[in-house]
UniProtKB/TrEMBL annotation:
Pfam families given in the database record: DnaJ (PF00226)
InterPro entries: DjlA_DnaK_co-chaperone, DnaJ_domain, J_dom_sf
Domain of life: Bacteria
Residue intervals of the J domain: 7-72
Organism this protein belongs to: Sphingobacterium spiritivorum ATCC 33300
Listed name of the protein: DnaJ domain protein
Transmembrane among keywords: yes
UniProt keyword annotations, A-Z: Membrane, Transmembrane, Transmembrane helix
PANTHER family named among the record's database cross-references: CO-CHAPERONE PROTEIN DJLA
TM spans (from-to): 337-370, 377-398
Length: 664
């Protein structure tokens, strides 16, 4: 019995449609390989040999093979036809993607905490700890002592820790992690630097308080509870199914006498959405009906209108293959060509010489036809115009004489100093470079409004783009990427004078301090609408990462493709105002470095994102490096403040420094 669902050719390790001789040869080879007598007790080989025998019985028989081949051929044709008619099958793709799974393990700790602080007297925004009611605390030093018996490793908070976290709020102080900690195990002690999270002191004490003027110094201490996060990362492979393109469905409507249509598209998750309505422009079809009308040497065609019901006539066209209805034989044709030749010679060689003699009598003839009253005014105007021409001639002659004298005097003076080099006379072409002018207006985080206009030289834009195209590096790894963005920054940093001038004026006019000026720069970049910059065309089928394909298939996607490295240089960005996270952080790094800020550019291959970090005293998430802490800043969200980073990209273990400014 033939099982049409099985591929007998694959079982026998043959190509589809192999000959019977090839079937026999392959069968003998496989029997020797999988025969149970050669592999006693191997159940897998027993199943394999049964499949081989079944396949051989069918496709070694000419009649059964013909029936089997015919079925598979027709089934393949039907399957291909279905895939062409079903847009979901043709607009779907699958690929294997690596998925990073991060598992957090928390180590809960309890111990003694000692915080040395300086308090500045204020009336608002203070931390209420016992008698220190109206002081804002600035942390000077933090030390912790922990017993090894008070350390608990668990996936869920429980017991004493759970009770404390539910009852008390964590300290609202910037402890400047990591905390200097000593862990005691019996008589042994080990020093650590710990990133303790959610530090909670149920009963805080303030001791050793010293007050001087409007400042207060003291020590905040107590038993603290907190935890340390430990992350374990594993990489798994998953099969991703994505859809793209049109579904083939359309809708039409009529409104105010106009027709509109829209198309349906696939999203990346294979759901569908409708595109925007597009107005249908009515154009003539230019489909001929087959009817032709002739008139002399000319003809015209009849065409269908757009509704294919009514018709209209096209334009008259000259028929180059038209023949005279009364030919005069060979001689008549020769005389016709001779006549045309004589007329052509007269027109080319004789008429131009006669035109000057004929022009003056023609003018007199036309004037004679005019009424005397009109002719009188024409003559008056003629003599007035002639007098003006003579007057202009005298003025021009006098001016040229003065210029010649001045030039002669200058020439004689220059000759006394240095003899001029004689050069061939040539035309001097002065090319004035054009300017790109951008007017911008935005608000910072305190709703302060900034407005200004800056310029970029078109020549600088061209040189910046040329530099990017000719960088002899490919972005194959993180190190090369760092070298590329450093090269772009170094080349462009001195070509942004127009933008620097605008911000210099803003800083002077608004009297901005260091923090406020940094906020004006970052909020300016954040206010520019997001545009995805890609190394290839803006076609979602060319990319495999989920963010790019999903963004490009969204209705409000903005993209600039075919940009090397998938990034715009700083000069390109301030010229066309098109940039994504990499482009924005590179521009901010260039600008903040110019204004002598201590700044870093962070990149994450895990998150496929880029952030800017600045060494200023902001609260929130900070990136520790050596003895400094850099407040992280998201650049793609308008008015996102320093230190406010989404939780999904907040694991600092996945961030690396790509660029760091040098403070002079």
């Amino acid at each position: 019995m033939i099982d049409f669902e099985k591929n007998y050719y694959t079982i026998l390790e043959l190509q589809e449609g192999a000959t019977i001789e090839e079937v026999k040869r392959s069968y003998r080879r496989l029997v020797k390989k999988y025969h149970p007598d050669l592999h006693p007790g191997n159940e897998e080989y027993e199943v394999k040999i049964r499949q081989i025998n079944e396949a051989y019985e069918v496709i070694s028989n000419e009649e059964d093979k013909a029936i089997y081949d015919d079925y598979r051929k027709r089934h393949k044709e039907i399957k291909e036809k279905d895939s062409k008619t079903d847009p979901l099958k043709s607009n779907k793709r699958q690929y294997v993607r690596e998925k990073t799974i991060t598992q957090e393990t928390r180590i809960y700790i309890k111990g003694k905490l000692q915080i040395k602080y300086k308090g500045v007297y204020i009336e608002e925004g203070s931390v209420n700890f016992l008698s220190e009611v109206f002081y804002r605390m600035e942390i000077l030093e933090v030390n912790a002592e922990i017993q090894s018996s008070d350390i608990s490793i668990t996936d869920e908070v429980e017991g004493e820790f759970k009770s404390v976290f539910e009852k008390f709020q964590p300290l609202e102080l910037d402890l400047k992690l990591p905390v200097k900690s000593v862990i005691f195990d019996g008589e042994k002690s080990v020093n650590y630097a710990l990133n303790i999270q959610r530090v909670t002191i149920p009963v805080p004490r303030i001791e050793k308080v010293t007050k001087y003027d409007n400042e207060s110094y003291g020590v905040l201490s107590g038993i603290f509870y907190g935890y340390i996060s430990s992350f374990k990362t594993t990489i798994e492979e998953e099969i991703v199914t994505e859809c793209f393109g049109e579904t083939g469905r359309t809708e039409t409507l009529e409104e105010d006498g106009h027709k509109y249509y829209r198309k349906e598209y696939f999203s990346a998750d294979c759901t569908t959405y409708w595109g925007e309505w597009v107005r249908i422009e009515t154009r003539e079809t230019y489909v001929p009906t087959g009817v032709v009308e002739n008139k002399g040497n000319y003809y015209r065609n009849q065409y269908f209108k757009s509704d294919y019901k009514d018709v209209y006539w096209g334009k008259w066209n000259y028929n180059s293959q038209y023949k005279a209805t009364n030919p005069s034989g060979c001689l008549g044709g020769s005389l016709g060509w001779l006549t045309m030749l004589i007329i052509t010679v007269i027109f080319i060689f004789i008429f131009p010489a006669l035109i000057f003699f004929l022009l003056f009598p023609a003018i007199l003839f036309l004037l004679a036809l005019l009424p005397p009253s009109i002719l009188k005014w024409i003559l008056r105007f003629f003599w007035m115009a002639l007098g003006c021409l003579y007057l202009l001639g005298f003025v021009s002659l006098f001016t040229e004489i003065n210029k010649a004298k001045t030039k002669s005097q200058r020439h004689s003076q220059n000759s006394l100093v240095q003899k001029r080099q004689i050069r061939p006379k040539q035309q001097q072409i002065i090319v004035k470079d054009s300017m790109i002018v951008n007017h911008v207006k935005w608000e910072d985080y305190s709703e302060n409004t900034y407005e200004g206009t800056y310029t970029v030289k078109s020549a600088d834009l061209r040189s910046s783009a040329f530099n990017k195209l000719n960088i002899p590096i490919e972005a194959t790894n993180q190190q090369n990427y760092n070298r590329i963005i450093h090269t772009l920054k170094e080349f462009d940093q001195n070509k942004m004078g127009g933008l620097y001038s605008m911000f210099d004026s803003i800083k002077t006019e608004k009297k901005l301090d260091q923090k406020a000026f940094a906020e004006s720069i970052v909020s300016f970049v954040q206010s520019i609408p997001y545009t995805l910059i890609l190394p290839k065309d803006c076609n979602p089928s060319l990319y495999q990462d989920e963010f790019t394909t999903k963004y490009l298939t969204s209705v409000d996607a903005y993209c600039e493709g075919n940009q090397r490295f998938g990034i715009n240089s700083p000069v390109e960005f301030i010229s066309n105002l098109k940039g994504d996270c990499d482009t924005r952080t590179l521009l901010l790094y260039t600008m903040l470095s110019h204004y002598k800020y201590d700044v870093i550019l962070l990149s994450s291959s895990h998150y496929k994102h880029s952030l800017i970090g600045i060494n200023l005293p902001y609260a929130g998430i900070r990136f520790p490096y050596k003895k400094s802490n850099y407040s992280l800043w998201e650049t793609t969200t308008y008015k996102a403040e320093a230190g406010v980073i989404p939780n999904k990209i907040s694991n600092l273990n996945y961030w690396k420094i790509s660029l760091k400014s040098k403070i002079k």
